[in-house]
Amino acid sequence: MSGYILSIDQGTTGTTVLVFDRNGTVCGKAYFEFMQHFPRPGWVEHDPEELWSVTLGAVDEALDNADIGAESIRAIGITNQRETSLMWDRASGEPVGRAIVWQDRRTSAFCDELKAEGLESQWQKKTGLLIDSYFSATKIHWMLNNVDGLRTRAENGEIAFGTIDSWLVWKLSGGSSHVTDYSNASRTMLFNIHELDWDSDILGRLDIPAAILPEVRPSSSVVAETDPTVFLGERIPIAGIAGDQQAALFGQACHREGMVKNTYGTGSFMLMHTGTKPVISKERLLTTIAWKLGDSPVEYALEGSIFVTGAAIQWLRDGLGIIHNASESEDLALSIEDNGDVYFVPALAGLGAPWWDSYARGAIIGLTRGTGKAHIARAALESICYQARDVALAMQREAGIEITELRADGGAVANRFLMQFQADMLNVPVLVPSIPETTALGAAYLAGLAVGFWDSRDEIAERWSLSDRYEPKMAESERDRLYSRWLEAVGLSKGWARD
Length: 499
Fold this sequence. Notes:
Elements lengths: L3 E7 L3 E7 L5 E8 L11 E2 L1 H19 L6 E8 L4 E5 L9 E2 L7 H9 L3 H8 L8 H11 L3 H6 L3 E5 H9 L6 E3 H4 L5 E2 L4 E2 L1 H7 L8 E3 L2 E6 L11 E7 H8 L8 E5 L3 E8 L10 E6 L7 E8 L3 H11 L7 H7 L8 E3 L17 E3 L7 H27 L6 E4 L6 H11 L3 E4 L4 H13 L6 H7 L2 E5 L5 H18 L6
């Protein structure tokens, strides 16, 4: 099949649109950032209409960059920041307010109440998730209870809820399709990953009307068509949807049980493919739906969600002003021989897996008169790798599968210091693919499979190619020493904001 696949990657700090050909080659690309809103400490919001307008602008620029018209696009794939939640009026399409971002911690106290009721074990068995403000469920509860008149409108069937994928499909289809896919549904803390349906008991406890929820569809299937009056004048199949981390797992060709990838973005997310049966974690990892391809069975993954990794480097730039761009962090880290016993625990939005402490706060430990910005930059980069080791060790124990390699993607793979230190911390090779945009690529592959642009997963796996390989070089004694000090630093940051 000739033509191209358009992939929309709607992330936490910006929207990337890529155009792929049948070889999986990027033929056109555009990236636009959007505003981050912080109305109160711990609150993070996005403007849904800005997300839509930024997406349209990025699509236009990517097509111009590829020098093609919309008539050449065979299908659209969408991948998105997960858990971020919004609601809109079904009749007008107007959002009821800003979207509450996955990083937002406003519902932490309510989550504590739910845990005190003894619900966490029961809900984890159903949803694969731990009770945390990270997920959509308590964000929905908060909106229904805090936006004037919203609960009544929701109960009357006037309101639609969605994660960002649902919002984009709604807008692209001119309001004709209210859908999500299995991977995104599994991140709401409302979806039973065994029965593959919204869970009535959880909806009842949170007083969430089922009428607001989208229809759940396979990750690789035609779920809608674009409305030509609002999008490029063409009817184009929307045929692939997946949460960003599941899309990256698919784009990295981690299609077999035991394969592992880690995406280094605003946060970092390590996923291990675990096959067609869910592994319910005992070590505070998440069990998530990886994807569902057409009529094939649902496939699952274990996940460790690390809230702040790349965002720590952004904070060095925007908060402290010690670097002008992210690439400077590598030069600073390499300018010194070691970390000078300085450790940075970047719990700027609490700690994710395996700690799950929403009251943890960022801490920089070990400062002396000899500490400079190079030590802080190096500590920030090292913290990314320590957090990945936290997750990897738990994941190996949980699945009973030894990790033999890590496939890495995301913007930070360009940082060679970071990738080498990651290989050293995990003591396994770190593999960087030749196409680093694996999240968008995964969404494109899912869409292309649904319309016959690609024939099979085997064809997709054959297209995966290596750019860089990092072998571990660090002595075991040094690895253990550094990691032990990291665990001490984490202990000091935990629970800091509880009062």
